[in-house]
Amino acid sequence: MSTDSKDVLELSLLLDAIERHYGYDFHNYARASLLRRVRKFLGQVNRSYISDLISLLLYDENSFSLFVKQLSVPVTEMFRDPDFFQVLRTQVIPVLKTYPFIKIWHAGCATGEEVYSMVIVLEEEGLLDRCQIYATDFNDQALSIARKGIYSSKQLERYEGNYRQSGGQTQLSDYGYQMYDSFKLNDRLSKKITFANHNLVTDGVFGEMNLVLCRNVLIYFNQILQERVLGTLVDSLCPFGILCIGKRENLRFCKVAERLESLDLCQRIYRKKE
Ligand SMILES: C[S@@+](CC[C@H](N)C(=O)[O-])C[C@H]1O[C@@H](n2cnc3c(N)ncnc32)[C@H](O)[C@@H]1O
User: Fold this and answer.
1) Distance between CA atoms of 198 and 107, rounded to whole angstroms?
2) Which has the closest alpha carbon to 261: 95, 100, 120, 53?
3) Which pLDDT tens digit goes with each residue over 136-159?
4) Is 80 exceeded by the pLDDT of residue 3?
5) Confidence grade of residue 4 (pLDDT, cut at 50, 70, 90)
6) What span, in angstroms and rounded, lies between the C-alpha atoms of 83 and 244?
7) Taking the C-alpha atoms of 233, 234, 239 and 240 in order, what is their torsion angle to the nearest 10 degrees?
8) Which of 51, 59, 43 has the alpha carbon at shortest distance from 12?
9) d(CA 113, CA 159)
10) How many Cβ atoms are within 10 Å of 72's Cβ, its own excluded?
């Protein structure tokens, strides 16, 4: 048996053990990137074989948290893809303005930069008071950063640029203050956000949402899992609710596409048919 096929066998045993013990199901994550991340984790914890991780992760919850962190790729930024936020302002906000109360779900919110960007747009459009926002991820460490809303000042210049390109009229720095080498977003921005742990693979539907954002998460899943998770996201929308996925993601070959119409194909913004 080659080393590669042993890796595949050991990975499958490891994923079974994790699912049975912790309920986290990584079986349908895109295999090549999953294997790459697991191998990287092996180096970090000084282990030689993937099967060594079975005992480590079953008996040491801290190592399991690190493992989830390694697999979760919480890469994000404020006003990531400014053109998406521009279309959000021009195409989605006018729809939201027709509702007396607005429920929004950010699935896979990572460390929170995306949800705070959305909150700033809602505030600027005079909608924040009418909103309840749920921001979820399965990575608890990322969620705890998101709750704090404190980010490195080094990123601020870049985020200011993104904000302006997205159609922002003031300055991002108006929404927070410097704390040593960090930037803390004002507390009033987080008042309408509930951060919670939710696993898109194993947990269920999330209420009757007017808007669901799940951007740059589906790329880590294989086709079977993308279809399943997209089903959960669309089931979470109220009739005519809006779904935003990442620009590198699409609904090709997904049955769920039948339940949606396109609002902006380039930005991957869809509306539930009814
Ligand atoms: C690349 S980040 C995307 C962050 C943000 N949506 C954005 O576009 O900037 C992907 C996030 O998806 C989360 N994720 C991956 N698998 C998940 C799952 N099964 N359930 C919930 N979140 C998951 C990761 O923890 C990570 O924070």
Assistant:
1) 8
2) 95
3) 999 999 999 999 999 999 999 999
4) no
5) confident
6) 13
7) 90
8) 51
9) 10
10) 19
- Whether ligand 1 lies within 6 angstroms of the CB of 138 is answered as yes
To test the pocket of ligand 1, the residue of 72, 77, 85 to mutate (highest count of ligand atoms within 8 Å of its CB) is 72
Whether 215 lines ligand 1, by a CB cut-off of 6 Å, is: yes
Tell me if 260 CB under 6 Å of ligand 1. no
Distance between CA atoms of residues 206 and 222, nearest Å: 22
Structure tokens at 189: 């921005």
Contact 167, 86 (CB under 8 A): yes
| Binding site membership of 137 for ligand 1 (Cβ less than 6 Å) | yes
Beta strands of the chain (E only): which ranges? 102-107, 131-137, 150-152, 176-179, 182-185, 193-197, 209-214, 237-245, 260-264, 269-272
For residue range 87-106, list pLDDT tens digits in order. 999 999 999 999 999 999 99
According to DSSP, residue 273 is labeled -
User: Residue 264: phi, psi to the nearest 5?
Assistant: -150, 105
Mean local confidence (pLDDT), 99-126: 98
Ligand 1 touching residue 226 (CB < 6 A) = no
Crossing angle between the packed helical segments 3-22 and 31-44, to the nearest 10 degrees: 80
Q: Which ligand 1 atom lies nearest to the CA of residue 203?
A: 20
For the stretch 10-30, pLDDT in tens is 999 999 999 999 999 999 999
What does the block give as tokens for 234?
Answer: 């669309």
CA 266 – ligand 1 centroid, Å? 21
- Closest-CA residue, ligand 1 atom 2, reads 74
